[in-house]
Amino acid sequence: MIKTILIISMAFLTFAIFVTIYRLVKGPSASDRIQALDVLGINIISGVAIFSVFLRNTGFFEVILLIGILSFIGTIAFARFIERGVVIERRKQSD
Amino acid sequence: MKTNDLILQTATKITVFIILAYSLNLFFAGHNTPGGGFIGGLISAAAIVLFLLAFDMKTVKKALPFDFKKVAALGLLIAALTGMGSFLFNVPFLSHTFGYFDLPIFGETELATAVLFDTGVYLVVVGVTLTIIQTIGEDDD
């Protein structure tokens, strides 16, 4: 029973990931692509969670937190690059 | 144009400590569960990278006045000395041992010398990653 539910939810999740990839390929501007990458990271988190329930294994819980942190930092770095042109500033911006 | 990163900087001040705590958890949990020195070092480097993204190079250098090349060297030294420490007990290079000790808060705990070696790995990973990022970030365009 629970296996069927997990497989069905995994199928829906795969569909969501494919739709996100469509936006990633097609997206007219860079911001669309970055948002698609962020959503893709969150979908992968839920995929890992479903998979670890499927395998009855707690060894993947670290991966969930890890993808969350890395996706957050990556999105911020891309956003900085679009807004400022540099990722890491050398000194405080004089106002 | 005057820019304002108030939301990013406030969120970073809280998130950096959560990420550092998670990296320490991964580091100490590496013996019995997934984790260890390598991934712990990478995650704490990621915390400092988030700090670099929200603020700027000068502020972070003032807040963390380490020469990260020396941190990597210190890590290598710790790893090598842990390996050589086994010579004092007439056993082969890099032999490890463990024992059970009564600690004040934790009760009976298993302490292994592999943690010392892992500390070396952790420091090398943090040092190398941040040296690469700071060297690239300081490039004059």
Global shape of chain A: flat
Q: Give the rounded overall mean pLDDT of chain B.
A: 88
Mean pLDDT of chain A: 90
Which band does the percent of strand residues of chain B land in?
A: 5-15%
Rg of chain A is 17 Å
How can the largest sheet of chain B be summarized? 2 strands, antiparallel
Spell out the helices and strands of chain A N to C: HHH
What share of the residues of chain A does DSSP label as strand, in percent? under 5%
Shape of chain B: globular
Gap between N and C termini of chain A: 62 Å
Oligomer: heterodimer
Residue share in helices of chain A?
A: over 70%
Structural class of chain B: mainly alpha
Number of helices of chain A: 3
List descriptors:
heterodimer, A: 95 residues, mainly alpha, 3 helices, B: 141 residues, two-stranded antiparallel ribbon, 65% helix
What's the gist of this structure?
The complex is a heterodimer of chains A (95) and B (141). With 95 residues, chain A is an all-alpha fold. Chain A has helices at residues 2-26, 30-55, 61-84.
How would you describe this protein?
The complex is a heterodimer of chains A (95) and B (141). Chain A has 95 residues and is an all-alpha fold. In chain A, 79% of the residues lie in helices and 0% in strands. Chain A contains three helices and no strands. The model of chain A has no long low-confidence stretch (mean pLDDT 90). Chain B contains five helices and two strands, in the order H-H-H-H-E-E-H. Chain B is 65% helix and 9% strand. The two termini of chain B are 21 Å apart. A two-stranded antiparallel sheet of chain B has the order 1-2. In chain B, strand 1 (98-103) and strand 2 form a beta hairpin. By secondary structure, chain B is mostly helical. The chains are: A mainly alpha (95), B mainly alpha (141). Chain A binds chain B through residues 59, 62, 65-66, 69-70, 72-73, 76-77, 80, 83-84, 87-93, 95, and chain B through 2-3, 8, 15, 19, 22, 26, 33-35, 39, 43, 46, 49-50, 52-54, 56-59, 133, 137-138.
